[in-house]
Design brief:
Layout lengths: L4 E2 L2 E2 L25 E5 L1 H4 L10 H11 L5 H16 L10 E5 L2
Antiparallel strand pairs: 1-2, 3-4
Length: 104
């Protein structure tokens, strides 16, 4: 995997070849032991219920905070379960990406 910035040049994220790098921003995050980082795509927060209500950032943050697990893979499963409950569907129609990183 390429580092995001090397020799002052931004390497494009995986799968973004051909889209250009203008507008890409990099950032650093300091994490302490036990900290958890949640990375997600917009399709996670734009999920809607049968009644048209949007799950939004509030729903994602609530689900993330309510997960009783310390294991990243279980946190992801909990969030997906909450999304399915919210949407009222057994399968989610929109592709989504969730990444949970916990510093040991």
């Amino acid at each position: 995997m390429l580092p995001p910035v090397r020799n002052g040049e931004i390497n494009p994220p995986i799968g973004s070849e051909g889209f250009g790098t203008s507008g890409l921003k990099t950032m650093s995050v300091s994490m302490n032991t036990g900290d958890t980082l949640l990375v997600y795509t917009p399709s996670v927060t734009s999920m809607s219920s049968d009644s048209g209500k949007i799950w939004g950032l509030k729903g994602l943050v609530s689900s993330f905070r309510n997960s009783n697990s310390q294991k990243p893979e279980v946190i992801v499963a909990d969030i997906i379960g909450d999304l399915k409950d919210f949407s009222g569907k057994d399968e989610l129609e929109n592709p989504l990406q969730l990444l949970v990183i916990r510093k040991r």
